[in-house]
Amino acid sequence: MSAKSELPVKICVQCGKPMVWRKKWEKNWDEVKFCSQRCRKEAKAGVPPRQAVRQPDER
Fold first, then answer.
1. Three-state secondary structure along 2-50?
2. How does pLDDT run across 8-40, given as a tens digit for each residue?
3. Distance (Å, whole) CA 33 – CA 35
């Protein structure tokens, strides 16, 4: 088993959030575009892509 930090990462085309490779995406990783069903539905409905919201560091 490899470390989680070594897994491939993609950016969701709808929300801009990074998504890490999952076992269930093994056969179609090249075709994965969305991180969730919500993002897939929004894209299909023509909702403009969102920018990933980053939380400020709490230091």
1. CCHHHCCEEECCCCCCEEECCHHHHHHHHHCCCCCHHHHHHHHHCCCCC
2. 999 999 999 999 999 999 999 999 999 999 999
3. 7
CA 20 to chain centre: 7
Residue type, 24: K
**Cα distance between residue 42 and residue 49, in whole Å:** 8
For the full predicted model, state whether its pTM sits above 0.85.
no
Tell whether the torsion through CA atoms of 29, 33, 39 and 45 is positive or negative: negative
